[in-house]
Fold:
Amino acid sequence: MTEKTIIATDNAPAAIGTYSQAVKAGDTVYISGQIPLNPQTMEMVTESFEAQAVQVFENLKAVAEAAGGSLGDFVKVTVLLSDLKYFAEVNQIMAKYFSAPYPARAAYAVKALPKDADIEIEAVMVL
Structure:
């Protein structure tokens, strides 16, 4: 059986439910969905969709670093959006955080996200 290691950092928002920020199993790290919470205040970033997306990517980056990796180690991301009208903007912002070869990705519009966020992203990383 693969040993699980819980990943936690103060540089990303604390879990707001019954989950861990990330779990490492073998050389794979499963990063829980990140919403645009400021980790210092635990308040939602709400100025714009761009500001929300940037906060989400910064949170993902912090968890990846706590696990001993980086965004470059991501192999899969799942993007959840409050509206698909944000799809093109997500692509532009994601291009600032990732370079080719890009991770696999899926994007969905969902009815609602925690704390009325417009974006949530979860990821899988291989170290």
The chain has a mean pLDDT of 97. The two ends are 19 Å apart (CA to CA).
